[in-house]
User: Fold this.
Amino acid sequence: MQTLQVDLGHSQYRITIGSGCLGDRALLASEIPGSGLMIVTNTTVARLYLAKLRASLDGRNVSECILPDGEQHKTLQTAGWVFDELVGKKINRDGVVLALGGGVVGDIAGFAAACYQRGIGCVQIPTTLLAQVDSSVGGKTGVNHSGGKNLIGAFHQPLAVIADTDTLSTLPDRELSAGLAEVIKYGCIADPQFLDWLDSNMEELRGRDVEALTYAIHRSCEIKAAIVGEDEREQGRRAILNFGHTFGHAIEAATDFERYLHGEAVALGMLMAADFSRELGLIDAAAQQRIDGLLRRAGLPTEAPKVGAARALALMRMDKKVLSGKVRLVLLERLGSGIVVSKYPQRALETTLREHFA
Amino acid sequence: MQTLQVDLGHSQYRITIGSGCLGDRALLASEIPGSGLMIVTNTTVARLYLAKLRASLDGRNVSECILPDGEQHKTLQTAGWVFDELVGKKINRDGVVLALGGGVVGDIAGFAAACYQRGIGCVQIPTTLLAQVDSSVGGKTGVNHSGGKNLIGAFHQPLAVIADTDTLSTLPDRELSAGLAEVIKYGCIADPQFLDWLDSNMEELRGRDVEALTYAIHRSCEIKAAIVGEDEREQGRRAILNFGHTFGHAIEAATDFERYLHGEAVALGMLMAADFSRELGLIDAAAQQRIDGLLRRAGLPTEAPKVGAARALALMRMDKKVLSGKVRLVLLERLGSGIVVSKYPQRALETTLREHFA
Assistant:
C-alpha cells in the first residue's frame, strides 16, 4: 500500500493506493471521519463493492444512495436525489459523503457534498483507473448541463482518497485502456522518465499487475497533485492537465458523447495536440510517434472520426475553457513538458484539424 | 455615498452604500467587471429597477433572467433556470451575475454564480434593507430544500456589493421593519453604542431618512464584515450572527414560513434569546427591556405564536446549525456582546420556551 500527501495550503489530504483497501477496517476508520456517512454509488458498482465497504464500516452510522449507472445521469436532477437522501437521513454538518465508483459517481457525489449545507466532507473511493488517476484527485466536482459537460460544479477537495487496485480486476478492458490514456497524459506533460517506465511496463499494466498499477496510479496522482497544488482553481498552469482535452471534447461532442469513452477521446485529442505541436516545430516526428505507439499499446484508438474540420473547430470554441472566444490549447514544448498556448497561426490549426477530421 | 472594504484574505471587495447608485454609470463601470453580464432579478423588482440598471449599463453585453417573486421559488429548480439562461446566453468564465433584488434573489443568483462553470463572479445589488445589511454581505448563498431552509448552497464572496438606498423608498413598511430587526441584532451582539444610536434615530430610519439609513447600513455591514473576516466558513465566531435565528427558525417552521417575514421571526427569536440570557443571569431585566423597546419602536412583533414549547424545541433541533443533535444557542453575555453557548441547563431552556410558546 502506498500513500501520498496532497497539500493545498487550506486543505491537506492523503491518497492511499493499493490492494485490499476496501477490506481494511483500520484504514477506513482512520481515513473516514464523521458521525453520519452516506455512500453514494451506482447500480453496477453497488453490486460489486457496496457490501464489502459496508462490512468494513460495520458499527458506524452508514446510509446509501444508489444512482443509475451512466454519464447521462450526471445531471442537476440526480444531484437533487442525493440532496433528498442526505436530508432524509438527517446527515448533519459533520456527516461525510463516500463516493464509491468511477468518475461520474465521484463528480456527482463530490458536488452534492460541496453544496449540502454549504459543504460537508467527502471521501473519494474511486473504482475505475480513470477515477483513480484523475477525477478523484484535485477537487473538481460537478454535473453536466444539456449545453455542455461539467458546466455546473464546485471546487471541493476530498478529505481523503482511497484507491483500491483490486477494484480494477472487474473493470472492462476498454475502461482500463481509457484510464491509461490519462496516465500517458501525465508522462507527456510532466515526466519523460515516466513515459520510459510506461514503455517498459505497458504489458504489465494491461495484465493488471498490482505492483505496476499501484506505481502508475501513485506517479499519476503525484504529478496531478503537484500541478493542482500550484494552481487549484485553474487560473493558469493547472490548464496543462487538459492536454488532449480540447480536441477530445470536440470529438466527444461531435459523436454525441456515445461513441467514445472520455479517455479514448482524450487519447485521440492528445495525438492531435502532439501533431499540432510538431506542426508548430515544438516537437519532432519521433516524439509524436512515441506517443502514438504508447497509445496503441495501451489499446486506445488512434484514428479520429471523420466529422469535418469546421465542425470540430466550432465545437472546440464551445468548450468552457475558451476565454472570450479564444481557443487556448495545451501543447508540448517537448516530450514530457506541456504548455498553454493561446497565440498560434489559425491556418496551422485548421491544417491539423483537416488532416485528422477530413 | 459611503464605501466599506471587506478583506477576507483570499478575497477583497467593496461595499458601496448611498443614494443614486443605480443611476451612477461611472460607479457601475468601476464596480462591475466582466465581458458578459447576466442580471438575475424577480418580477417585482424588474418592474421597478431593471430598466434603470440596464440604462446605466448601456453599451455592455447584458442579458437578464427574471424569476418569479417569493421564497417558495428559492429552489434547486429555479437555480436550474438560471443555469439554463447562463448557458443559453453563452456566458463564459469571465461573465458576471448581477443579483438585483432582496435576499431570495441574492441567494439564488449567488448560488448560481458559485456553481456555474465552478464559479463565476457575482455582484450583489440588494434592494431591500434586509439584503443590504445582511444577506448580500458575507458570501453565504443557497436555495431551500423541502427538508429545510438553505440546505443547498455555497460560500461565494461577491466581487462587489452596491446598495442603493433609494430602492428602500418602494419597500413596504413591514419589510423595512424586518430589515431593522437585523440592524438591531448587530447592536445587540457587537456594539452597545450602535444600540444607543438606534434608540436616538429609530424615527428617522422608519421615515426612510437617507442619511440615517446610509449610516445604519454602513455600520451593520462593517460589523458583519469584521465577524465574517474572522471566520468566513462559520467554524466558530461567525455563529454569533445567528443571534435570534435558532429560536426564529423554529417560529418560521412552526408557522409554515408563511405568517412571519424572516426578520420578524428573528425579532421574536432575539427576544427569546435575550430572555434566556436573563434567565441564565447573563444580562439583567433592564437590558432585555431595552431590546424589547427597540424592536417595538422598529414596528416588529414582540409576542410569539403559541405553537407549544415541545414543538418549538423539536424544530430548533432540526436547524442545520445543530451539531450532533446538540442545540447551540447564541446568547448575550452582556448588551452589545454575543456568545455561542452549548452548555446550559435544559430545564431553563424549556422554561423560557414555555413562557413564550405556551
